[in-house]
Amino acid sequence: MTAGGNTVERSDDQDAGARSIGVAVLGMGNVGAEVVRIISDNAADLQARVGAPVQLRGVAVRDLARPRAIDPELLTDDPGALVARDDVDIVVELMGGIDPARGLIRAALENGKSVVTANKALLAEYTGELATAAARAKVDLYFEAAVAGAIPVVRPLMQSLAGDTVERVAGIVNGTTNFILSAMDETGADYEATLAEAGRLGYAEADPTADVEGYDAASKAAILASIAFHTRVTAADVYREGISAVTADDLVAAKKFDCTVKLLSICERVHDADGSERVSARVYPALIPLTHPLASVNGAFNAVVVEAENAGRLMFYGQGAGGAPTASAVLGDMVMAARNRVHGGRGPLESTYASLPIAPVDDVPTRYYISMRVADRPGVLAQVAGEFTKRSVSIAAVRQEGAGDDARLIVVTHRAPDRAQSECVAALEDMDAVIKVSSVLRLEGTDD
Amino acid sequence: MTAGGNTVERSDDQDAGARSIGVAVLGMGNVGAEVVRIISDNAADLQARVGAPVQLRGVAVRDLARPRAIDPELLTDDPGALVARDDVDIVVELMGGIDPARGLIRAALENGKSVVTANKALLAEYTGELATAAARAKVDLYFEAAVAGAIPVVRPLMQSLAGDTVERVAGIVNGTTNFILSAMDETGADYEATLAEAGRLGYAEADPTADVEGYDAASKAAILASIAFHTRVTAADVYREGISAVTADDLVAAKKFDCTVKLLSICERVHDADGSERVSARVYPALIPLTHPLASVNGAFNAVVVEAENAGRLMFYGQGAGGAPTASAVLGDMVMAARNRVHGGRGPLESTYASLPIAPVDDVPTRYYISMRVADRPGVLAQVAGEFTKRSVSIAAVRQEGAGDDARLIVVTHRAPDRAQSECVAALEDMDAVIKVSSVLRLEGTDD
Predict the structure, then answer these.
(1) Which of B56, B151, B328, B353 to mutate to test binding with chain A, by most A CBs within 10 Å of its CB?
(2) In 3-state terms, what secondary structure has residue B21?
(3) In whole angstroms, what separates CA A398 from the centre of its chain?
(4) Where is the active site (chains A, B) (predicted)?
(5) A418 vs chain B: nearest CA distance in angstroms?
(6) I want to staple A240 with a disulfide (CB 3.0 to 4.6 A). Which of A218, A392, B76, B220 is the partner?
(7) For A353, nearest residue in chain B (alpha carbons)
(8) Burial of A307: CB neighbours in 10 Å, binned 0-12, 13-18, 19+
(9) Which residue in the set A155, A162, A339 is minimally distant from B348, CB to CB?
(10) Is the peptide bond before A100 cis (omega within 30 degrees of 0)?
């Protein structure tokens, strides 16, 4: 039994370890190239861990002509044919995007192949469809790499916490936006300049929309919420705001409240007054106290905090992107899927038994930080406070700054339904005494 | 199919979900009581996650007379008979200690029952024996709760990182010692007073030896090293020093070097000059830089940092002890073991294919912090430095403090084999100019 052998032997003896496990990789970008490298470099370790040799059957790429560090005979531009091969047991999908990844994964599952994918956009829409196909074929559908790169989050939530009740998942799961916010915090530069710098350094893509407008973080929130609450949550269920409106002033102001600003993906079990429960999934830039464990997660790092009834608060921290770290997560899944093919059994799939309703952000209790330019005259604070009182939103802190044309008022509220908070903001915008509401951010990570 | 039904139906259809999964709990201390409570409180959730009802068949306790929050008919003082019951599928061992836990677990495994245990002392000695029995019977042996309580560490290391190469695991995995060191750091009190206070607050046991002398941390290091390096490492292979010699002065001095003192469990892949590899597992109090992620892990919290070739540095943080958090980890394992009985398959067991030799601490490159009282006269520094040069240990920093009777010299070395470092210390102790070597600690968590 050698790792490099080419003979495919199949055996019904689940523990024999005599057959090899065939792997097809779809896509050879940063992550795919690392996956291919590690499968070759670590063949002996992978074989020992799986119980059978792991063999790369082929890699589907768009451009066959491009030079790559791989035996050219393994390359194909026909992913459909690769997926359909009888000697492929596991399909590792790293193309990204909905199509053709969706059809290829379905075809793989329907043909009894296990699938490992890092495709968060696809999973955030079609986990239901894919999990159903996997369940029908009794194969694995693993996707650790879809959320927070190398950091084990999906498996701990699905397996380690399988006996607990998750109350909340809050994470920094997008490296681009965290790099930008960290850099703005450190340098005092504004958003546009920092985004441009992030682009130059390779931390932001040419079209950064998916990152900076929170679409990527929202896909990950949908995936995390689905797992945490045993409820199907899709990207469309996630309330989303990006970071493009965050200003250098916001970061300065945050510091005065011993806070910083982070783009958070928040998944929360909402306990309604009648004892029923709903799920909230949302993404927005928020103030968090400097003492909160997520406050010190800087640069391109990711971290996810999980709060569960019995486990209490757990944090998972590490590299959320990059070829090798993401490949590490992909290969962990690949080894487990391969091992299941050798030893029998399979990992848990999507679980939606709880089917909790989605709570719109309007209903979710949040806290607001509101910064506004106001007329510098007596009575303004009382008038402003009145708008909050009217909507039963109680004020936690007020700071008055500047004078004359630069008179500013900063208000931080206590928890109240987000609708009431946003109605306060709308009312302030209509007030004569308020010249401009210059910034509105939510405040997360506090106990009250 | 109700969670409360008592009929045990067995079926060969792996997906039927018609039979119930019978659970026996051995031991009803803090953790056992929480496990029993959660099985009853969360019956519907557990059933949905497992795919079959989970039913508590019985709980073995030492003292039947003691009042407990449980149907007395479930209690027994005959754990052997409970484990042998035909309607028990999973044995949850929470008695602790080697005997009778060892025999009961073996009997359970040999009778085809899956086992979930939190027994680190047992695992650190007898994982080999137990895993062999589990492999033979094709059942699960899970032990997430044995290391770092609620924090998922075992499963991420065994599964999520199954495709990576772990280089290093360093953890704060003993809450008692971390509480004591954190309190000493905060209050400036000495070890004895802080230990007494920890006892009063319930953070230290009446006989604190297992914690303060590092035996508990060493057991966990053995377990972590075994998993991380696919090599059997037992408690006897772990070099061990406790915290009882750490002084208030050490914590003050650590701060001057922008460090703090933590009891670390370190598991390291040692790369020898000839290209071969060995495993080092060791426990000692060490200085770590305040910027290191483990430096801010305070009180009874635990954290484990894993460094892997591709994943980079990951950190797992949370509650390392306590009834409910530990029960969360136990129940995650129980759900996965139960799920495997319903759906077929089983989790990975001990993997020892790498069988790396153990590196004695003498051979491991370490850094030292040495504080000594010296004679206040010219030439002492040169003389001290000479002892290091003689043994090819290079000095990274020197601090001279005080004068006259209180003249002190603090030396921090660069990395060199631990034997050379400790020989330097012995030589210093023999020097006339050195009145007393008052403190020796290793320095960890630095790159150089």
Answers:
(1) B328
(2) strand
(3) 34
(4) 220
(5) 30
(6) A218
(7) B48
(8) middle
(9) A339
(10) yes
Nearest by CB to residue B159, choosing from A150, A336, A344, is A336
Strand pairing report for A408-413 and B21-26 = unpaired
pLDDT (tens, 9 = 90+) of chain B, 448 residues, equals 333 333 333 333 344 445 899 999 999 999 999 999 999 999 999 999 999 999 999 999 999 999 998 999 999 999 999 999 999 999 999 999 999 999 999 999 999 999 999 999 999 999 999 999 999 999 999 999 999 999 999 999 999 999 999 999 999 999 999 999 999 999 999 999 999 999 999 999 999 999 999 999 999 999 999 999 999 999 999 999 999 999 999 999 999 999 999 999 999 999 999 999 999 999 999 999 999 999 999 998 999 999 999 999 999 999 998 999 999 999 999 999 999 999 888 888 889 999 999 999 999 999 999 999 999 999 999 999 999 999 999 999 999 999 898 899 999 999 999 999 999 999 999 999 999 999 999 999 997 6
A197 touches chain B (CB under 8 A): no
Inspect the interface and report whether the beta carbons of A328 and B152 lie closer than 8 Å: no
Which among B151, B162, B331 is the nearest to A163, CB-wise? B331
Which residues of A are marked as active site?
Answer: 220
- Altogether, the residues listed in chain A come to a count of 448
Q: For residues A161 and A154, is the Cβ–Cβ distance under 8 A?
A: no
Report the alpha-carbon angle A76-A82-A83, nearest 5.
Answer: 145
- From B107, B138, B141, B42, select the one nearest B350 (Cα to Cα): B141
A223, A309, A267, A229: which is closest to B150 by C-alpha? A309
Domains in chain B with CATH codes: 21-149+325-343 (3.40.50.720), 153-319 (3.30.360.10), 362-443 (3.30.70.260)
The interface residues of chain B toward chain A in range 100-139, judged by CB-CB distance below 8 A, are: none
